[in-house]
Amino acid sequence: MNYIGSKYSLLKEIEAVLDKNHVPADSIALDLFAGTAAVAQFLKLRGHITYANDWQYYSYVTSVAFIEHNAFPTFDTLLADTFWKKRIESASSEKRIFTYSINNRTSLPDNMPCAQVLSYLDQLPGQRGLFYEAYCSGGNAKRLYYSGDNGLRIQAIRDHIETWNSEGLVTEKEKAWLIACLIEAADRVANTASVYGAHLKHIKRSAQAPLMLVALQPASSPHSPDQHRVFQQDGAKLLERFTPGQLRLIYMDPPYNHRQYAANYHVLETIARWDVNLFEPRGVTGLRNRKEQRSDLCLRSTAEAAFRALFERVNSDYLLFSYNNEGLLSGKKLLELLEEFCTDVRFTEIRFKRFRADINRENRIYKADRTREFLILGKPKK
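Request: output the structure for the sequence above.
Response:
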């Protein structure tokens, strides 16, 4: 997924900081702002019992797919149903199903249950519905987040997942995995300049490509999948649930500037929640509720207090914090806060390619092509 602030490209540096400072690869590690779950996957593969959290629902289902599963789901109940088993297994495998994770890209054998289920969904005929009408080319609202063909297929696939779940044919974890697979596929053919704050005026070439479902590959682990947990909560409130000594490591990669994730990924949030019947999409871009999940970390007037509220509640053995030089808090102020609440603070600076939603234009010139990313490791004071 194209994602603001994704740390996928920073995983080697995160690993180096943890290993250099001898942070044990055991016990529980919490990724407090999981996003696309790239760091949560890394922590799970490193050997931790992994907890992931994000209050956006599209992030929640993505984290469930990678973290609360140790292997691809088998859809035992769905495929035990004679009617659905026959329909799914009779669907011809016209296209290979490819996997996606932080370290693996391969195709799945056609006879794997999850590949059969995705192949069936991938071949459903498109249909009109509320999502199509609100966000897709050809819909009543005339928004162009997706081409007409892809919009019809997103509608049909997501409706099918909801039906299976309501009939008890897929579990909540299987449902989350299927939704996450659809979100990953839908993001690849979105008619945007990376984020969903607005759609393009014409359907670009990449958005004309047919949607192709991909299989999110869960991170492997020596621990039972039931030991890994995913939350959808405000970060500060979640930290209050843990007792001293319960967490080995907390990783924080919070929002660092004015970009509100709820607005920038509202279409993916709607695909995840499938609740267009419960709100009226606002304005030209079809935004969700104006007050929905607005973060104080993204407001200059409240950012410092919000960070203080987080640090006051940290009681893990280690805290690893990501930030960058474009954040609302200065590097100096951030260090002051961390040193107030942590000992043995270690600071690492990394040059990192800058996120660009588009190219330079007359009314918007990017000042730099690269940012300075900060990885700050400390031991929270008990």
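Residues 76-216 form one domain.
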